[in-house]
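Limitations

Structures in this collection are predictions, not experimental determinations, and the ligand pose is part of the prediction. Treat each record accordingly. The example that follows, with EPU as the small molecule, is included so readers can see exactly what is and is not provided: the inputs are given verbatim, and the output is the predicted complex.
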Amino acid sequence: MEVFRIHGGGPLEGVVEVSGAKNAALPIFAATLLTDQPCRIDNVPDLSDLRFMVEILESMGASVDQDEAGSWNVQANKLNPVAPYELVRKMRASICLMGPLVGRCKQAEISLPGGCVIGPRPIDLHLRGLRKMGCAIDIEGGYLRVDGKHLQGTRLFLGGRHGSTVTGTANMLMAAVLADGETIIDSAACEPEIVDLCQMLVKMGAQIDGIGSHELHIRGVDKLGGCTHSVLPDRIEAGTYIIGTAMLGGNVRIQGARDRHLNALLDKLDDAGVHAIIESSDVIHVRRNSEQLRPVDIITLPFPGFPTDLQAQMCGLMALTPGLSILTERVYPHRFMHVPELQRMGADISMEGASAIVKGVDHLSGAPVMASDLRASAALILAGIAARDETWVQRIYHLDRGYENFDAKLRGLGANVERLPGSELPNFLQVES
Ligand code: EPU
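Predicted complex:
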Protein backbone atom coordinates (compact mmCIF):
# COMPACT_ATOMS: atom_id res chain seq x y z
CA MET A 1 0.00 0.00 0.00
CA GLU A 2 1.34 3.42 -0.92
CA VAL A 3 2.10 6.14 1.60
CA PHE A 4 2.95 9.85 1.48
CA ARG A 5 6.13 11.33 2.90
CA ILE A 6 5.86 15.06 3.38
CA HIS A 7 8.57 17.52 4.31
CA GLY A 8 6.87 20.57 5.77
CA GLY A 9 7.33 23.97 4.21
CA GLY A 10 5.33 26.51 2.21
CA PRO A 11 4.43 28.70 0.53
CA LEU A 12 2.37 27.39 -2.41
CA GLU A 13 3.00 29.21 -5.67
CA GLY A 14 1.63 28.76 -9.18
CA VAL A 15 -1.43 27.58 -11.05
CA VAL A 16 -3.49 24.48 -10.36
CA GLU A 17 -6.19 22.98 -12.57
CA VAL A 18 -9.26 21.51 -10.90
CA SER A 19 -10.51 18.14 -12.23
CA GLY A 20 -14.09 17.06 -12.92
CA ALA A 21 -16.26 16.55 -9.84
CA LYS A 22 -16.37 13.00 -8.45
CA ASN A 23 -19.77 13.55 -6.87
CA ALA A 24 -21.23 14.69 -10.18
CA ALA A 25 -19.46 12.08 -12.33
CA LEU A 26 -20.77 9.13 -10.27
CA PRO A 27 -24.53 9.81 -10.73
CA ILE A 28 -23.83 10.92 -14.32
CA PHE A 29 -22.29 7.53 -15.09
CA ALA A 30 -25.31 5.91 -13.42
CA ALA A 31 -27.62 8.02 -15.61
CA THR A 32 -26.14 6.48 -18.77
CA LEU A 33 -28.13 3.34 -17.83
CA LEU A 34 -31.37 5.22 -18.53
CA THR A 35 -30.94 4.73 -22.27
CA ASP A 36 -29.82 2.07 -24.74
CA GLN A 37 -28.18 4.84 -26.80
CA PRO A 38 -24.49 5.83 -26.53
CA CYS A 39 -23.50 8.54 -24.04
CA ARG A 40 -20.19 10.35 -24.06
CA ILE A 41 -18.96 11.80 -20.79
CA ASP A 42 -16.07 14.27 -20.80
CA ASN A 43 -13.98 15.83 -18.02
CA VAL A 44 -14.17 12.63 -15.96
CA PRO A 45 -11.57 12.58 -13.18
CA ASP A 46 -9.21 9.61 -12.97
CA LEU A 47 -10.21 8.29 -9.54
CA SER A 48 -10.62 4.88 -7.99
CA ASP A 49 -14.33 5.55 -7.28
CA LEU A 50 -14.92 6.11 -11.00
CA ARG A 51 -13.04 2.92 -11.85
CA PHE A 52 -15.33 1.02 -9.42
CA MET A 53 -18.33 2.58 -11.14
CA VAL A 54 -17.06 1.45 -14.55
CA GLU A 55 -16.61 -2.09 -13.19
CA ILE A 56 -20.18 -2.12 -11.89
CA LEU A 57 -21.64 -0.80 -15.17
CA GLU A 58 -19.72 -3.46 -17.10
CA SER A 59 -20.89 -6.18 -14.71
CA MET A 60 -24.47 -5.16 -15.56
CA GLY A 61 -23.83 -5.54 -19.29
CA ALA A 62 -22.96 -1.97 -20.36
CA SER A 63 -20.06 -1.43 -22.74
CA VAL A 64 -17.72 1.20 -21.37
CA ASP A 65 -14.56 2.51 -22.99
CA GLN A 66 -12.25 5.42 -22.59
CA ASP A 67 -11.22 7.08 -25.84
CA GLU A 68 -8.88 9.70 -24.42
CA ALA A 69 -7.93 10.84 -20.94
CA GLY A 70 -11.08 11.98 -19.20
CA SER A 71 -13.50 11.00 -21.99
CA TRP A 72 -15.65 7.91 -21.71
CA ASN A 73 -18.27 6.26 -23.92
CA VAL A 74 -20.96 4.22 -22.25
CA GLN A 75 -23.71 2.25 -23.95
CA ALA A 76 -26.10 0.06 -22.04
CA ASN A 77 -27.83 -1.91 -24.82
CA LYS A 78 -28.37 -4.84 -22.53
CA LEU A 79 -28.87 -4.33 -18.86
CA ASN A 80 -28.97 -6.82 -16.01
CA PRO A 81 -30.35 -4.76 -13.12
CA VAL A 82 -28.27 -6.38 -10.37
CA ALA A 83 -25.47 -4.61 -8.45
CA PRO A 84 -23.60 -7.28 -6.48
CA TYR A 85 -22.08 -6.92 -3.01
CA GLU A 86 -18.49 -7.61 -4.19
CA LEU A 87 -18.62 -4.37 -6.18
CA VAL A 88 -21.05 -2.21 -4.17
CA ARG A 89 -19.11 -2.72 -0.93
CA LYS A 90 -16.13 -0.92 -2.50
CA MET A 91 -18.13 2.26 -2.92
CA ARG A 92 -21.20 3.49 -1.06
CA ALA A 93 -22.16 5.82 -3.90
CA SER A 94 -23.19 2.76 -5.97
CA ILE A 95 -26.59 3.25 -4.35
CA CYS A 96 -27.13 5.94 -7.03
CA LEU A 97 -27.64 3.06 -9.52
CA MET A 98 -30.99 2.26 -7.89
CA GLY A 99 -32.89 5.19 -9.50
CA PRO A 100 -31.81 4.50 -13.11
CA LEU A 101 -32.39 0.74 -12.79
CA VAL A 102 -35.89 1.28 -11.46
CA GLY A 103 -36.54 3.95 -14.10
CA ARG A 104 -35.43 1.88 -17.06
CA CYS A 105 -35.91 -1.77 -16.00
CA LYS A 106 -38.73 -1.20 -13.47
CA GLN A 107 -36.75 -3.38 -11.11
CA ALA A 108 -33.43 -3.36 -9.26
CA GLU A 109 -31.45 -5.65 -7.06
CA ILE A 110 -28.71 -3.83 -5.27
CA SER A 111 -26.58 -4.74 -2.32
CA LEU A 112 -26.93 -2.48 0.73
CA PRO A 113 -23.69 -0.50 0.98
CA GLY A 114 -22.82 -1.15 4.67
CA GLY A 115 -20.94 1.00 7.19
CA CYS A 116 -19.07 4.23 6.69
CA VAL A 117 -16.41 5.89 8.86
CA ILE A 118 -17.95 9.34 8.60
CA GLY A 119 -20.99 8.15 10.57
CA PRO A 120 -24.39 6.59 9.96
CA ARG A 121 -25.52 6.98 6.35
CA PRO A 122 -29.09 5.71 6.16
CA ILE A 123 -31.03 5.50 2.90
CA ASP A 124 -34.50 5.65 4.44
CA LEU A 125 -35.40 8.76 2.40
CA HIS A 126 -34.50 6.98 -0.88
CA LEU A 127 -36.66 4.00 0.06
CA ARG A 128 -39.59 6.09 1.28
CA GLY A 129 -39.49 8.04 -1.98
CA LEU A 130 -39.51 4.92 -4.15
CA ARG A 131 -42.32 3.37 -2.09
CA LYS A 132 -44.36 6.56 -2.56
CA MET A 133 -43.78 6.19 -6.28
CA GLY A 134 -45.44 2.77 -6.16
CA CYS A 135 -42.40 0.48 -5.78
CA ALA A 136 -42.44 -2.59 -3.58
CA ILE A 137 -39.15 -3.03 -1.72
CA ASP A 138 -37.80 -6.06 0.15
CA ILE A 139 -34.53 -6.44 1.98
CA GLU A 140 -33.18 -9.97 1.91
CA GLY A 141 -29.68 -11.36 2.34
CA GLY A 142 -28.20 -7.84 2.45
CA TYR A 143 -29.85 -6.94 -0.87
CA LEU A 144 -32.56 -4.42 -1.66
CA ARG A 145 -35.02 -5.81 -4.17
CA VAL A 146 -37.12 -3.14 -5.80
CA ASP A 147 -40.16 -4.02 -7.87
CA GLY A 148 -41.06 -0.93 -9.85
CA LYS A 149 -43.64 -2.28 -12.28
CA HIS A 150 -46.18 0.21 -10.87
CA LEU A 151 -43.73 3.14 -10.91
CA GLN A 152 -45.82 6.28 -10.94
CA GLY A 153 -45.12 10.00 -10.60
CA THR A 154 -46.21 11.57 -7.32
CA ARG A 155 -45.29 14.31 -4.82
CA LEU A 156 -42.24 13.51 -2.68
CA PHE A 157 -40.69 15.28 0.28
CA LEU A 158 -36.97 14.54 0.59
CA GLY A 159 -36.04 16.60 3.67
CA GLY A 160 -34.53 14.68 6.57
CA ARG A 161 -33.17 15.70 9.96
CA HIS A 162 -29.87 16.72 8.35
CA GLY A 163 -31.42 18.52 5.39
CA SER A 164 -32.21 17.19 1.95
CA THR A 165 -30.38 14.17 0.59
CA VAL A 166 -28.05 14.59 -2.38
CA THR A 167 -27.90 10.99 -3.63
CA GLY A 168 -31.55 10.49 -2.65
CA THR A 169 -32.48 13.41 -4.93
CA ALA A 170 -30.35 11.91 -7.72
CA ASN A 171 -32.10 8.55 -7.31
CA MET A 172 -35.63 9.99 -7.31
CA LEU A 173 -34.82 12.16 -10.33
CA MET A 174 -33.50 9.21 -12.31
CA ALA A 175 -36.52 7.05 -11.44
CA ALA A 176 -38.97 9.89 -12.16
CA VAL A 177 -37.67 10.79 -15.64
CA LEU A 178 -39.03 7.46 -16.95
CA ALA A 179 -42.05 7.12 -14.62
CA ASP A 180 -45.67 7.57 -15.66
CA GLY A 181 -46.95 11.08 -14.97
CA GLU A 182 -45.47 13.96 -13.02
CA THR A 183 -43.21 13.76 -9.97
CA ILE A 184 -42.68 16.77 -7.74
CA ILE A 185 -39.64 16.55 -5.50
CA ASP A 186 -40.06 18.93 -2.60
CA SER A 187 -37.01 19.74 -0.45
CA ALA A 188 -34.79 18.47 -3.25
CA ALA A 189 -31.03 18.90 -2.80
CA CYS A 190 -29.79 21.81 -4.92
CA GLU A 191 -26.05 21.02 -4.87
CA PRO A 192 -24.25 21.97 -8.13
CA GLU A 193 -23.70 18.22 -8.73
CA ILE A 194 -27.49 17.73 -8.82
CA VAL A 195 -27.83 20.64 -11.24
CA ASP A 196 -25.18 19.02 -13.46
CA LEU A 197 -27.06 15.71 -13.40
CA CYS A 198 -30.33 17.50 -14.30
CA GLN A 199 -28.59 19.21 -17.21
CA MET A 200 -27.40 15.87 -18.55
CA LEU A 201 -30.86 14.32 -18.12
CA VAL A 202 -32.42 17.22 -20.05
CA LYS A 203 -29.91 16.60 -22.90
CA MET A 204 -31.14 13.00 -22.90
CA GLY A 205 -34.72 14.20 -23.37
CA ALA A 206 -35.96 14.41 -19.76
CA GLN A 207 -38.49 17.08 -18.85
CA ILE A 208 -37.44 18.80 -15.65
CA ASP A 209 -38.47 22.21 -14.32
CA GLY A 210 -37.08 24.03 -11.29
CA ILE A 211 -33.46 22.93 -11.84
CA GLY A 212 -31.27 24.38 -9.08
CA SER A 213 -34.20 24.96 -6.73
CA HIS A 214 -35.61 22.93 -3.85
CA GLU A 215 -38.69 22.00 -5.90
CA LEU A 216 -38.18 19.89 -9.00
CA HIS A 217 -41.04 19.06 -11.36
CA ILE A 218 -40.37 16.06 -13.57
CA ARG A 219 -42.73 14.87 -16.30
CA GLY A 220 -41.92 11.28 -17.13
CA VAL A 221 -41.21 10.38 -20.78
CA ASP A 222 -41.32 6.97 -22.53
CA LYS A 223 -37.70 6.90 -23.62
CA LEU A 224 -34.46 8.81 -23.24
CA GLY A 225 -31.70 9.13 -25.83
CA GLY A 226 -27.92 9.40 -25.72
CA CYS A 227 -26.00 12.62 -25.14
CA THR A 228 -22.58 14.21 -24.72
CA HIS A 229 -21.94 15.83 -21.39
CA SER A 230 -18.93 17.37 -19.69
CA VAL A 231 -18.73 16.98 -15.89
CA LEU A 232 -18.54 20.24 -13.94
CA PRO A 233 -15.30 21.10 -12.09
CA ASP A 234 -14.94 19.81 -8.55
CA ARG A 235 -15.83 22.58 -6.08
CA ILE A 236 -14.49 20.55 -3.14
CA GLU A 237 -11.13 20.00 -4.83
CA ALA A 238 -11.02 23.73 -5.66
CA GLY A 239 -11.93 24.58 -2.07
CA THR A 240 -9.17 22.29 -0.80
CA TYR A 241 -6.52 24.22 -2.80
CA ILE A 242 -8.00 27.52 -1.64
CA ILE A 243 -7.79 26.43 2.01
CA GLY A 244 -4.30 25.00 1.40
CA THR A 245 -3.07 28.36 0.10
CA ALA A 246 -4.65 30.15 3.06
CA MET A 247 -2.91 27.72 5.38
CA LEU A 248 0.54 27.68 3.80
CA GLY A 249 0.66 31.19 2.44
CA GLY A 250 1.63 31.97 -1.14
CA ASN A 251 0.03 32.92 -4.38
CA VAL A 252 -2.10 30.38 -6.27
CA ARG A 253 -4.45 30.64 -9.22
CA ILE A 254 -7.09 27.92 -9.09
CA GLN A 255 -8.46 27.21 -12.55
CA GLY A 256 -11.88 25.61 -12.58
CA ALA A 257 -12.86 27.22 -9.25
CA ARG A 258 -16.36 28.63 -9.70
CA ASP A 259 -17.06 31.33 -7.14
CA ARG A 260 -20.81 30.75 -7.33
CA HIS A 261 -20.21 27.23 -5.99
CA LEU A 262 -17.80 28.37 -3.28
CA ASN A 263 -19.43 31.44 -1.76
CA ALA A 264 -19.85 29.96 1.72
CA LEU A 265 -16.13 29.14 1.86
CA LEU A 266 -14.99 32.46 0.34
CA ASP A 267 -17.17 34.38 2.79
CA LYS A 268 -15.66 32.58 5.80
CA LEU A 269 -12.14 33.04 4.46
CA ASP A 270 -12.84 36.73 4.00
CA ASP A 271 -13.82 36.89 7.70
CA ALA A 272 -10.60 35.03 8.50
CA GLY A 273 -8.58 37.61 6.56
CA VAL A 274 -7.73 35.60 3.44
CA HIS A 275 -7.59 37.52 0.21
CA ALA A 276 -9.34 35.72 -2.68
CA ILE A 277 -9.78 37.48 -6.00
CA ILE A 278 -12.48 36.26 -8.39
CA GLU A 279 -10.63 36.64 -11.70
CA SER A 280 -13.42 35.15 -13.78
CA SER A 281 -16.37 32.81 -13.38
CA ASP A 282 -13.85 29.94 -13.49
CA VAL A 283 -10.69 31.27 -11.83
CA ILE A 284 -10.03 32.21 -8.21
CA HIS A 285 -6.69 33.71 -7.21
CA VAL A 286 -5.69 33.33 -3.55
CA ARG A 287 -2.87 35.29 -1.96
CA ARG A 288 -1.58 35.26 1.56
CA ASN A 289 1.71 36.74 2.71
CA SER A 290 2.41 37.13 6.39
CA GLU A 291 -1.01 38.43 7.43
CA GLN A 292 -2.27 37.09 10.73
CA LEU A 293 -5.49 35.13 10.29
CA ARG A 294 -8.57 35.54 12.47
CA PRO A 295 -10.61 32.68 13.98
CA VAL A 296 -14.07 31.93 12.54
CA ASP A 297 -17.13 29.89 13.49
CA ILE A 298 -18.48 27.52 10.87
CA ILE A 299 -21.59 25.38 10.64
CA THR A 300 -21.74 22.83 7.84
CA LEU A 301 -25.04 22.74 5.96
CA PRO A 302 -26.40 21.52 2.62
CA PHE A 303 -25.63 23.77 -0.37
CA PRO A 304 -25.42 26.78 -0.48
CA GLY A 305 -24.22 26.48 3.14
CA PHE A 306 -20.65 25.60 4.14
CA PRO A 307 -19.91 22.10 2.72
CA THR A 308 -19.24 19.24 5.10
CA ASP A 309 -16.68 18.03 2.53
CA LEU A 310 -14.46 21.03 3.41
CA GLN A 311 -14.83 20.83 7.19
CA ALA A 312 -11.74 18.68 7.84
CA GLN A 313 -9.50 20.90 5.68
CA MET A 314 -10.86 24.00 7.44
CA CYS A 315 -10.15 22.35 10.78
CA GLY A 316 -6.48 22.16 9.75
CA LEU A 317 -6.46 25.85 8.81
CA MET A 318 -8.11 26.86 12.08
CA ALA A 319 -5.59 24.74 14.01
CA LEU A 320 -2.97 27.28 12.89
CA THR A 321 -5.12 30.41 13.32
CA PRO A 322 -4.61 32.30 16.59
CA GLY A 323 -7.73 32.39 18.78
CA LEU A 324 -10.72 30.12 19.20
CA SER A 325 -12.68 28.77 16.20
CA ILE A 326 -15.71 26.50 16.38
CA LEU A 327 -16.57 24.06 13.59
CA THR A 328 -20.01 22.48 13.92
CA GLU A 329 -21.17 19.54 11.77
CA ARG A 330 -24.85 19.56 10.89
CA VAL A 331 -24.63 17.13 7.97
CA TYR A 332 -22.53 14.30 9.46
CA PRO A 333 -22.33 14.94 13.23
CA HIS A 334 -19.69 12.19 13.64
CA ARG A 335 -17.35 13.32 10.87
CA PHE A 336 -14.36 14.21 13.03
CA MET A 337 -11.96 11.30 12.46
CA HIS A 338 -9.25 13.78 11.46
CA VAL A 339 -9.27 15.40 14.89
CA PRO A 340 -7.20 12.79 16.81
CA GLU A 341 -4.68 12.73 13.94
CA LEU A 342 -4.38 16.53 13.90
CA GLN A 343 -3.94 16.36 17.69
CA ARG A 344 -0.99 14.01 17.11
CA MET A 345 0.56 16.83 15.10
CA GLY A 346 0.12 19.25 18.00
CA ALA A 347 -3.28 20.78 17.19
CA ASP A 348 -5.28 21.96 20.20
CA ILE A 349 -8.81 20.72 19.48
CA SER A 350 -11.49 19.56 21.88
CA MET A 351 -14.81 18.03 20.97
CA GLU A 352 -18.15 19.17 22.33
CA GLY A 353 -20.92 17.07 20.74
CA ALA A 354 -20.86 17.75 17.00
CA SER A 355 -18.56 20.76 17.39
CA ALA A 356 -14.78 20.95 17.30
CA ILE A 357 -13.40 23.75 19.45
CA VAL A 358 -10.12 24.66 17.81
CA LYS A 359 -7.57 26.79 19.63
CA GLY A 360 -4.93 27.95 17.19
CA VAL A 361 -1.35 26.92 17.92
CA ASP A 362 1.85 28.53 16.76
CA HIS A 363 2.97 25.52 14.72
CA LEU A 364 2.18 21.87 13.98
CA SER A 365 4.86 19.21 14.05
CA GLY A 366 5.28 16.41 11.57
CA ALA A 367 4.14 12.97 12.74
CA PRO A 368 3.03 9.62 11.33
CA VAL A 369 -0.76 9.82 10.79
CA MET A 370 -3.55 7.66 9.40
CA ALA A 371 -6.03 8.88 6.82
CA SER A 372 -9.51 7.72 7.81
CA ASP A 373 -11.60 8.99 4.90
CA LEU A 374 -11.30 11.04 1.76
CA ARG A 375 -11.53 14.59 3.11
CA ALA A 376 -9.60 13.75 6.29
CA SER A 377 -6.75 12.57 4.03
CA ALA A 378 -6.60 15.94 2.28
CA ALA A 379 -6.70 17.76 5.62
CA LEU A 380 -3.80 15.71 7.00
CA ILE A 381 -1.68 16.20 3.89
CA LEU A 382 -2.16 19.99 4.01
CA ALA A 383 -1.38 19.90 7.74
CA GLY A 384 1.77 17.89 6.94
CA ILE A 385 2.91 20.55 4.47
CA ALA A 386 2.22 23.27 7.03
CA ALA A 387 4.00 21.35 9.82
CA ARG A 388 7.66 21.37 10.82
CA ASP A 389 9.73 18.34 9.86
CA GLU A 390 8.48 15.10 8.34
CA THR A 391 4.95 13.63 8.18
CA TRP A 392 4.04 10.16 6.96
CA VAL A 393 0.44 9.64 5.86
CA GLN A 394 -0.82 6.06 5.62
CA ARG A 395 -4.02 4.65 4.03
CA ILE A 396 -3.90 7.15 1.19
CA TYR A 397 -6.19 4.91 -0.85
CA HIS A 398 -8.93 7.04 0.71
CA LEU A 399 -7.41 10.09 -0.99
CA ASP A 400 -7.22 8.37 -4.37
CA ARG A 401 -10.98 7.83 -4.30
CA GLY A 402 -11.61 11.54 -4.73
CA TYR A 403 -8.55 13.70 -5.55
CA GLU A 404 -6.97 13.31 -8.96
CA ASN A 405 -3.15 13.55 -8.81
CA PHE A 406 -3.24 15.37 -5.48
CA ASP A 407 0.46 14.81 -4.79
CA ALA A 408 1.54 15.83 -8.31
CA LYS A 409 -0.64 18.96 -8.22
CA LEU A 410 0.79 19.94 -4.82
CA ARG A 411 4.33 19.34 -6.08
CA GLY A 412 3.47 21.62 -9.02
CA LEU A 413 2.78 24.33 -6.42
CA GLY A 414 6.12 23.74 -4.73
CA ALA A 415 5.15 21.38 -1.89
CA ASN A 416 7.46 18.55 -0.92
CA VAL A 417 5.07 15.59 -1.07
CA GLU A 418 6.22 12.16 -2.26
CA ARG A 419 4.12 9.08 -2.99
CA LEU A 420 6.10 6.00 -2.00
CA PRO A 421 5.50 2.27 -1.82
CA GLY A 422 4.56 1.11 1.69
CA SER A 423 7.90 -0.72 1.86
CA GLU A 424 9.59 2.69 2.20
CA LEU A 425 7.89 3.33 5.53
CA PRO A 426 10.42 3.54 8.35
CA ASN A 427 10.65 0.27 10.31
CA PHE A 428 8.84 1.56 13.36
CA LEU A 429 5.75 2.25 11.19
CA GLN A 430 5.74 -1.06 9.32
CA VAL A 431 3.32 -2.87 11.68
CA GLU A 432 -0.02 -2.08 10.09
CA SER A 433 -1.86 -2.10 6.95
N1 EPU B 1 -29.66 11.00 5.26
C1 EPU B 1 -30.70 10.38 5.90
N2 EPU B 1 -31.48 9.53 5.18
C2 EPU B 1 -31.27 9.28 3.86
C3 EPU B 1 -30.19 9.92 3.21
C4 EPU B 1 -29.39 10.77 3.95
O1 EPU B 1 -30.92 10.59 7.10
O2 EPU B 1 -32.02 8.49 3.28
C5 EPU B 1 -28.80 11.91 6.03
C6 EPU B 1 -27.34 11.47 6.02
O3 EPU B 1 -27.07 10.53 7.03
C7 EPU B 1 -26.61 12.79 6.24
C8 EPU B 1 -27.49 13.77 5.46
O4 EPU B 1 -28.78 13.16 5.37
O5 EPU B 1 -26.65 13.13 7.60
C9 EPU B 1 -26.99 14.12 4.08
O6 EPU B 1 -26.78 12.92 3.34
P1 EPU B 1 -26.81 12.86 1.76
O7 EPU B 1 -27.75 11.79 1.34
O8 EPU B 1 -27.06 14.23 1.23
O9 EPU B 1 -25.34 12.44 1.43
P2 EPU B 1 -24.90 11.50 0.24
O10 EPU B 1 -25.71 11.78 -0.94
O11 EPU B 1 -24.80 10.10 0.71
C10 EPU B 1 -23.19 13.14 -0.84
C11 EPU B 1 -21.73 13.10 -1.19
C12 EPU B 1 -20.90 13.21 0.08
C13 EPU B 1 -21.27 14.54 0.76
C14 EPU B 1 -22.78 14.57 1.04
C15 EPU B 1 -23.25 15.88 1.64
C16 EPU B 1 -21.71 11.70 -3.13
C17 EPU B 1 -21.30 10.45 -3.77
N3 EPU B 1 -21.44 11.84 -1.85
O12 EPU B 1 -23.41 12.02 0.01
O13 EPU B 1 -19.54 13.27 -0.33
O14 EPU B 1 -20.56 14.66 1.97
O15 EPU B 1 -23.50 14.36 -0.18
O16 EPU B 1 -22.94 16.93 0.81
O17 EPU B 1 -22.23 12.60 -3.79
C18 EPU B 1 -17.23 13.04 -0.11
O18 EPU B 1 -17.14 13.36 -1.30
O19 EPU B 1 -16.23 12.97 0.67
C19 EPU B 1 -18.55 12.74 0.44
C20 EPU B 1 -18.74 12.06 1.58
